[in-house]
Predict the structure.
Amino acid sequence: MGHELDNHPLASDFPEFKDKIHALKTSNTHFARLHREYEEVDKAVIRLETGVEHGSDAEIETKKKLRVLLKDELYALLKA
């Protein structure tokens, strides 16, 4: 299952924040919404990269950039 390498679940990227991620998902609606959006974008990128869904290179790049922006925002909230 090579495609799992491209999956970027937040808790595996920031293991030191695993508990805080869980706490914020249940207590902070803004964080929860961002997290949900991040996971949806991440899954979409994986589907595109693995050919499950087809999209243009531009579409894939746009989703990857969005994923980075969302991750940066989530990270900022985790560090706050």
